[in-house]
Design a protein that fits this description.
This protein is α/β, with parallel strands linked by helices. The chain has 2 domains: 149 residues, Aspartate Aminotransferase, domain 1 (Alpha-Beta Complex), CATH 3.90.1150.10; 224 residues, Aspartate Aminotransferase, domain 2. It is built from 14 helices and 12 strands. The strands form 3 sheets. It has a 7-stranded mixed sheet with strand order 2-8-7-6-5-3-4, with helices on both faces. Strands 9-12-11 form a 3-stranded antiparallel sheet. The chain has a two-stranded parallel ribbon with strand order 1-10. α3 packs antiparallel against α10, α4 packs parallel to α10 and α11 packs parallel to α14. The protein is globular and about 60 Å long.
Length: 410
């Protein structure tokens, strides 16, 4: 055979890590939605968790000013001093704790710190365990597996307003536990960990000084029912707790990619991770984030007030849909209705089949519970709505769902 024609059509294999890496199904469903829209289908989408508001004008202006003034180059991997100081003041003042600028590291969004944390506190293949909430942000489980640790789910129960029983946490901690992930307010349920829950959790974790806590608090300013409370506020917890927050949700800056993390011991480790990966977050975005934190908060307050109104609207409408039961979420911008009866009414085997029929038959895009981990035993079927959508879209979308259920009930 002519050697020039003897071309291999296979490629080298990829690693187990690469093969096991999960995804965020909100983006998978969004691709489905975009395909249908390109085909001319009218779709009301509740699948992506990002504010539908523009970034406030003063923050946009700060970004433009950074460009015009030549702030185009690398920054220190940990972030510019001005943003680290602003984030430290903001994190500390809203939680009543003392955070130094040197404790803070800035990243290209808050999401990379999930991976950096797991990689920093567990060893690959050593049997190290990470306890994480289910249902929960899918990147938790994805990064636990990709980093060769053992995922240990702790279930958020509908009967507890989507919190977990602290006694269950204590039962799951072993000598191999290296990290506990907490998320409040929570994605996808909108649930919050109340002060009494966190007090009990703190008491448990004080007895396990070998365990780190990753406190995912990206929705900390979107807590509606009472004060926001962080585990880091409790005596003895600050040193063990990695506080994760950022600009994306509060100031409608998802595409600017600015997150920050606070922990004194791990800040140098996170800085090295960023040097090894991104080098640094965008300098332009960092200056915009300084303005977001230090500038006027009128726009952020108005967005929060709008989300609260939308929460009350969508919960009222969902509870009027046959077969739906929706608890009022305490924070973030997600509703997590129980659709067990709606699935039975419409002959759907589960929430994923129900989700697909809502998309293709009713023109409404939501996410199913299985996009956020395994189903909670005994808690039935759920779907997630992001109510970061205009009130008119909420009314139209829920109206379509109600019509679909009524027309297809058996």
């Amino acid at each position: 055979m002519n050697a020039a024609l003897d071309i291999h059509t296979t490629v080298p294999r990829i690693s187990r890590r690469g093969e096991s890496l999960g995804t965020e199904n909100a983006f998978v469903v969004l691709a489905e939605v975009n395909t249908l829209v390109r085909q001319g289908k009218d779709v009301v989408s509740f699948c992506i968790g990002q504010p539908d508001f523009p970034t406030p004008v003063n923050i946009q202006d700060a970004g433009i000013a950074a460009i015009r003034s030549g702030k185009h180059g690398y920054t220190p991997s940990a972030g510019i001093d001005e943003l680290r100081a602003a984030a430290a003041r903001d994190i500390g003042s809203r939680r009543g704790i003392d955070i130094a600028a040197d404790d803070v590291v800035v990243g290209a969004g808050a999401k990379p710190f999930i991976a950096y944390t797991i990689a920093s506190v567990t060893d690959y293949g050593a049997g190290d365990e990470v306890i994480y909430p289910v249902p929960g942000f899918p990147i938790y489980e994805s990064q636990i597996a990709a980093n060769g640790a053992v995922p240990v789910p702790i279930y958020l129960k509908e009967a507890r307003d989507f919190a977990f029983d602290p006694n269950e946490l204590e039962a799951k901690i072993t000598p191999q536990t290296k990290l506990v992930i907490l998320n409040t307010p929570q994605n996808p349920t909108g649930g919050i960990l109340r002060r009494s829950d966190l007090e009990a959790i703190a008491e448990i974790l004080l007895g396990h000084p070998h365990v780190w806590i990753f406190a995912d608090e990206i929705y900390s300013r979107l807590s509606y029912d009472g004060e926001f409370v962080s585990l880091a506020q409790f005596p003895g917890m600050l040193e063990q707790t990695i506080i994760s927050d950022g600009a994306s949700k509060t100031w409608a800056m998802t595409g600017w990619r600015i997150g920050f993390i606070a922990n004194r011991a791990l800040a140098p480790v996170f800085t090295r991770w960023i040097t090894n990966t991104d080098s640094c977050a965008s300098q332009i975005s960092q200056w915009a984030a300084v303005e977001a934190i230090d500038g006027p908060q009128d726009a952020a307050d108005a967005m929060r007030a709008s989300f609260l109104q939308r929460r009350d609207l969508i919960v009222r409408l969902l509870n009027d849909v046959p077969g739906f039961s929706c608890k009022t979420p305490g924070g973030a911008f997600y509703a997590w209705p129980n659709v067990t009866e709606a699935c039975k009414l419409t002959g759907c085997a589960d929430s994923e089949e129900f989700r697909k029929r809502l998309l293709y038959d009713a023109g409404v895009a939501v996410l199913a519970d299985i996009h956020f981990g395994r189903r909670v035993p005994g808690d039935g079927q759920h779907i997630r709505f992001s109510y970061a959508a205009a009130p008119e879209a909420i009314q139209s979308g829920i109206g379509r769902i109600a019509d679909f259920v009524r027309e297809n009930s058996r």
